[in-house]
Amino acid sequence: MLQNLLLVFWTMVILLMTCTTRFELENKLLQVYFSWNSNPEFGDLFLALPAELTEPFILQKVGHLIAFVILGFLLKIQTNNIKTILFIISFAILTEFLQLYLSRGGRLFDVGFDLIGGGLGIAVGALIQNIIAKEQNPSTLKR
């Protein structure tokens, strides 16, 4: 039950980060701003990586990786690999597509960062599951 709540919570956090135009801290309250674009430029999905990789750009990509590492891990410990992989692919594409409508720059190369992060999360989840399984059943250890 707790794992399901964590997964739903983290999915909502990613969606909030995806849909938010900007955050502001005002009077100790976090204010979140959204901006709807009813006529997005779909060609933006196909823009290439910028020639100059600035610090804010790199931090955004690290954010993609971390968000999807956590998502991949939470999914891996709850479901099978196929469902996990399909969800991560679908969710990565959905979040980039949504950004076009929310005055943010959705890019296909960001899907790649998301998938790398998701794959790392799945790998970490699988590694932890294997360690736990070996500890619970020491007879499976090879001599």
What gap, in angstroms, lies between the N and C termini?
37 Å
Name the beta content range.
5-15%
Biggest sheet, in brief? 2 strands, antiparallel
User: Which structural class fits the helix and strand makeup?
Assistant: mainly alpha
Chain-averaged pLDDT: 90
DSSP, total strands = 2
Overall outline: globular
Strand order of the largest sheet: 1-2
Q: H/E series, N to C? A: HEEHHH
If helices are DSSP runs of H or I spanning 4 or more residues, what is the number of helices?
A: 4
**Backbone CA Rg:** 18 Å
Fraction in helix: 55-70%
Runs in which pLDDT lies below 50 for 5 or more consecutive residues are: none
Structure write-up:
Helix content is 63%, strand content 7%. With 143 residues, the protein is mostly helical. It has a two-stranded antiparallel sheet with strand order 1-2. A hairpin with a 2-residue loop joins β1 and β2. α1 packs antiparallel against α2 and α1 runs parallel beside α3. The longest helix is centred in the C-terminal third of the chain and has 29 residues. It is globular, with a radius of gyration of 18 Å. The model has no long low-confidence stretch (mean pLDDT 90).
Provide a brief overview of the structure.
This protein is mainly α.
Key terms:
single chain, 143 residues, mainly alpha, two-stranded antiparallel sheet, 2 strands, 7% strand, globular
Give the SSE map.
Blueprint: H1 2-19, E1 22-26, E2 29-33, H2 55-76, H3 81-101, H4 108-136
Antiparallel strand pairs: 1-2
Helix pairs in contact: 1-2, 1-3, 2-3, 2-4, 3-4
